[in-house]
């Protein structure tokens, strides 16, 4: 990610503000993070040496409640990225009307170079460094890129050890046996699926007639693929970090996933016979009715946006389209369902986990999925309506919708107009 990513992200704030009558206090509070902490994590390696890893945690805004956001372990993590992701989380939580602000964390590390015991030491070292920064009523981390349930289990355990009491609500995304929520595994893909199905009449798509390409085949991508496939949408392309497969006659995501798990590649995965192997970038440009970027950031840019054929794009990844790419897609009349709406299912079920941890009472799967649907569908409809009412693209509409909620919380504390009066 470029060092200008945060600057680009904050432009969304000012674009949304143009469509609302805001007190100046609101923008003043939101243009910078509330606090960002950097740390060095010294970790004893298996060979007896010590390596230090750069780490960060950002709490962007807590006007609406404790900050919430994942922790990613990736070599490219930097403070600019962490601040940007925390900014996005602030608006994502507001879009879903969750009582949270946005936070994010990260460690600059290649987890593939660590043993499992080294990964555990690093995970516990992160909590040791940030234990006074996070907390169940202050800042609640979760999994993100290259972190998972067992990493969250180590982190929750380390926080509980430091606090000297069990504190499951400090971390979400934990294994079920340690206070995790049913339904968390497919929440991101399912949330995007609920929004897409709810708006399909408006978008001109439908099961049985519409074809879908998904860039990525990780957790969110697979669950979106299987849910749409089960409903009658034709999945015609998927990819992993190495390559992509495309078959205009369709493919079965269950068979493809089984093949990938056995062979650790998509090359040679079963299709309906007309399969082509191509790059991730080429897959984005294939003809389809719905394109779902569900991999990394900055995949659709000013360089390739004019070659995107799909009329509907559902962002399951965070930030897969750059501002320059956005402008080209909007001019071409494409409908982009933005990340802060489309992938909000993950943080919504994380919120459910936090609520269950605090209550000590756990919900069955059907209740979790029902509650998720009752949030994602109405919020998707509201963003669509704002887009039409104001004549703006859906991304700007999502930011307008979220900013209106954040502004109400800021104004409830009193603004310049109140104090001058």
Molecular structure report:
The protein has helices at 5-17, 24-30, 79-95, 116-130, 149-163, 187-198, 200-203, 219-231, 253-263, 280-284, 323-331, 339-342, 345-359, 365-390, 394-411, 416-420, and strands spanning 35-44, 50-61, 67-73, 101-107, 139-143, 211-215, 234-239, 244-246, 276-278, 290-293, 312-314, 335-337. It is an alpha/beta fold and 421 residues long. It has two domains: 33-178, 3-Layer(aba) Sandwich (Rossmann fold); 187-342, Rossmann fold (3-Layer(aba) Sandwich), CATH 3.40.50. The chain has a seven-stranded mixed β-sheet. A five-stranded mixed β-sheet has the order 1-2-4-3-5. The protein is globular, with a radius of gyration of 21 Å.
Nutshell version of this structure?
This protein has about 425 residues and is of the alpha/beta class. The protein has helices spanning about 5-15, 25-30, 80-95, 115-130, 150-165, 185-200, 200-205, 220-230, 255-265, 280-285, 325-330, 340, 345-360, 365-390, 395-410, 415-420, and strands at about 35-45, 50-60, 65-75, 100-105, 140-145, 210-215, 235-240, 245, 275-280, 290-295, 310-315, 335. It has two domains: about 35-180, 3-Layer(aba) Sandwich (Rossmann fold); about 185-340, 3-Layer(aba) Sandwich (Rossmann fold), CATH 3.40.50.
């Amino acid at each position: 990610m470029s060092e200008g990513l945060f600057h680009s992200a904050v432009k969304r704030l000012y674009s949304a503000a143009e469509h609302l009558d805001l007190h100046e206090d609101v923008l003043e509070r939101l243009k910078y993070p509330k606090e960002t902490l950097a740390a060095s994590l010294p970790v004893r390696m298996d060979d007896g040496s010590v390596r230090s890893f750069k780490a960060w945690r950002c709490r962007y805004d807590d006007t609406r409640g404790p900050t919430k956001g994942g922790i990613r372990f990736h070599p490219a993590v930097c403070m600019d990225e962490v601040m940007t992701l925390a900014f996005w989380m602030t608006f994502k939580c507001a879009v879903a009307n969750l009582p949270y602000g946005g936070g994010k964390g990260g460690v600059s590390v290649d987890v593939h170079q660590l043993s499992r015991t080294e990964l555990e030491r690093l995970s516990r070292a992160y909590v040791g460094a940030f234990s006074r920064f996070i907390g169940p009523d202050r800042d609640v981390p979760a999994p993100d890129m290259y972190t998972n349930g067992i990493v969250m289990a180590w982190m929750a355990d380390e926080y509980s050890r430091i606090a000297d009491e069990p504190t499951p609500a400090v971390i979400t995304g934990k294994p079920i046996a340690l206070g995790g929520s049913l339904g968390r595994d497919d929440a991101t893909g399912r949330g995007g699926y609920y929004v897409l199905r709810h708006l399909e009449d408006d978008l001109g798509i439908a099961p049985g007639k519409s074809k879908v390409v998904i860039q990525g085949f990780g957790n969110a991508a697979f669950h979106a693929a299987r849910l749409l496939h089960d409903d009658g949408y034709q999945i015609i392309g998927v990819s992993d970090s190495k390559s992509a497969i495309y078959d205009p006659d369709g493919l079965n995501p269950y068979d493809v996933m089984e093949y990938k798990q056995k062979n650790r590649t998509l090359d040679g995965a079963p299709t309906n016979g007309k399969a082509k192997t191509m790059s991730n970038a080429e897959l984005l440009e294939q003809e389809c009715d719905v394109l779902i970027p569900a991999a990394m950031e900055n995949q659709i840019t000013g360089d390739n946006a004019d070659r995107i054929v799909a009329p509907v794009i559902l962002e399951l990844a965070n930030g897969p389209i750059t501002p320059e790419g956005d402008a080209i897609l909007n001019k071409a009349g494409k409908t982009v369902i933005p990340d802060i709406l489309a992938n909000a299912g993950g943080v919504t079920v994380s919120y459910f986990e936090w609520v269950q941890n605090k209550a000590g009472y756990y919900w069955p799967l059907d209740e979790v999925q029902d509650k998720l649907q009752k949030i994602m569908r109405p919020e998707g409809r509201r963003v669509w309506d704002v887009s039409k009412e104001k004549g703006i693209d859906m991304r700007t509409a999502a930011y307008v919708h979220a900013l209106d909620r954040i502004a109400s919380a800021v104004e409830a504390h009193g603004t310049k107009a109140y104090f001058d009066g």
